[in-house]
Amino acid sequence: RGRASGVGMVLPVGVRDRVAAVHRGSALPERLRLYDGWAARYEQDVAALEYRAPHLAAASLAFAFPAPPAGARLLDVACGTGLVARELHRRGFCCLHGVDGSAGMLERARSTGLYQELRRCVLGREPLPAPAEHYDAVTVVGALGEGQVPSTVLPELLRVTKPGGFLCLTTRSNPSNLRYKAELEAALGLLERSGAWQKLLAQEVKHWERATSEEEEDTRGTGYISGVVYIYQKCPVPTLEED
Asked: What region holds the Methyltransferase type domain (predicted)?
């Protein structure tokens, strides 16, 4: 793409191509194969993108917790190579479980030593490998987007979250993801109105990551696309008063 305004840096062509490949509407087996192949270069590529979502999500979740998080059990959904786990660990979250659809990504995540448990799970196609009300918090960072995880997974995320527990979700606000973002926010709002959870935070962030294409994304001359962090708290089950 073109140069990022003010910094004069050109995003490597290979990074653009790899990001585009996993975000285009390919069939699931092909997409998982692409993620497997990307795993070895993933962290290098997202560093070039200046991808801030793992840091922003972990900071937001840490702020939401009412008590020190050492004993909290967290599920990192679509954990990738473990970028979110690193950020959470720095903030005192030690009991981390992760799931991802890509065996290649899970292998990298396992090498970090930050997860107590890692399982393969293709979210949207199969249930999470966890009992109901098992986690104090659930994160989905980076996977909620066009051509990735469908917004229909929200009830399954809620299922494994304890009453009073937190859910930290992120999505991008760039033009190519706006249709998905609208669907996601409609689903988020429907669950809120039903009393399933309450919204604590919806934080728009301008410099989410560098755009891979100035031509396709409206970066307003910054060279960056924007994104949003959501924090929800699962509502406790109401107790019935005895007569």
From this structure: 75-168
Q: What is the pLDDT of residues 215-243, one digit of tens each?
A: 567 667 788 999 999 999 999 876 555 54
- Residue 166 has, within 13 A of its CA and on its CB side, a CA count of 24
**139-195 pLDDT tens trace:** 999 999 988 899 999 999 999 999 999 999 999 999 989 999 999 999 999 999 999
For helices 53-64 and 83-90, give the axis angle rounded to 10 degrees: 40
Of 177, 135, 179, nearest in space to 156 by CA: 135
Nearest to 111, CA basis, from 123, 121, 98: 98
On the question of pLDDT at 7 being above 50, the answer is: no
Give the C-alpha separation, 214 to 115, whole Å. 37
The C-alpha atoms of residue 231 and residue 243 are separated, in whole angstroms, by 37
Helices 28-48/13-23 angle, 10° precision: 140
Q: In the chain, what is the greatest distance between 2 CA atoms, to the nearest angstrom?
A: 71
pLDDT at 4 over 70: no
Distances (CA, A) of 107 to 75, 110, 190, 201: 17, 5, 36, 33
Domains and CATH numbers, the chain: 15-234 (3.40.50.150)
Residues 69-104 as b/e (b if ≥16 CB within 10 A, e otherwise) read: beebbbbbbbbbbbbbbebbbeeebebbbbbbbbeb
